[in-house]
Amino acid sequence: MKIVEYDKKYIEDVKDLLVELEEYILTIDEDHLDQLHPEYREKMAILDLEEVNKNNGKCYLAVENNKAIGLIMGCIFPYDEYDYLDYKCPKRGEITELIVTNKIRSKGVGQELLNKMEKYFKSVGCEYAIVDVFAYNEIGKNFYNKTNYHPRMETMIKKI
User: Fold this and answer.
1) Cα 11 from Cα 9, distance rounded (Å)
2) What number of CA atoms fall less than 13 Å from residue 45's CA on the CB side?
3) Integer distance in angstroms from the first to the last C-alpha of the chain?
4) What pLDDT score was predicted for residue 80?
5) Which of 8, 21, 24, 87 could form a cystine bridge with 99, CB 3.0-4.6 A?
6) Residue 44: which pLDDT band, with cuts at 50, 70 and 90?
C-alpha cells in the first residue's frame, strides 16, 4: 500500500469511497436527516475535489493493487472579517473527508492518511488541524481521540 496525491485515474474509486462513507452515515443517523441523493455518486466527488483545489488543499489516496482503498481531503479555508473580532485566527487546515474502505479498516491506513495530511498542513504553515465528526460516528470520534484531537465546539440539535 502506498499514499499518493489524487490522480484523476482514481475518480471512480473516490466516488465509491464517498458513497461507502455516506451509506455508513445513513446507518448511524439517529435523526434520519442524511440521505443518499440519486446524484450523490456523480456529483459529490467533483464538488469535494473542486473545494480542495479552490482552498489550497490536498487529496491523498491510499492505493493498493492500483485501486484507491482510502482517501483524505483537506482544505485551508480563509477566515472572514468577523472571525478576527473574537478569535486569534491561527492558520489551520481542515480535514473535510476521511474514509478507509470497510474491508481493511483498523489496519493503520487511516492513520497514514491522517499523518500525510497533517504533514502537508504543517509544511504550509498551519498551526492546527481541525475536523468535524458526525455526532453519532463513535468509530470516527474514537479514531480522532486516539490521535490527540479533542472537541472544541459542539452543534446541538432539537426537532421542534
Assistant:
1) 6
2) 19
3) 48
4) 86
5) 21
6) very high
CB count in 10 Å sphere of residue 26: 13
Q: What torsion do the CA atoms of 50, 54, 55, 60 make, to the nearest 10 degrees?
A: 40
| Cβ(120)–Cβ(73) below 8 Å | no
CA distances from 102 to 24, 110, 120, 132, 139 (A): 10, 11, 26, 20, 12
* CATH code for the structural domain at 2-146: 3.40.630.30
The amino acid at residue 48 is D
Q: What is the pLDDT of residues 1-17, one digit of tens each?
A: 999 999 999 999 999 99
93: helix, coil or strand?
strand
Q: What is the pLDDT of residues 122-159, one digit of tens each?
A: 999 999 999 999 889 998 999 999 999 988 888 778 78
Q: Domain coordinates of the chain in residue numbers?
A: 2-146
Backbone angles phi, psi at 6, to 5 degrees: -50, 140
Whole-structure pTM value: 0.90
β-bridge pairing 58-64 and 2-5:
antiparallel
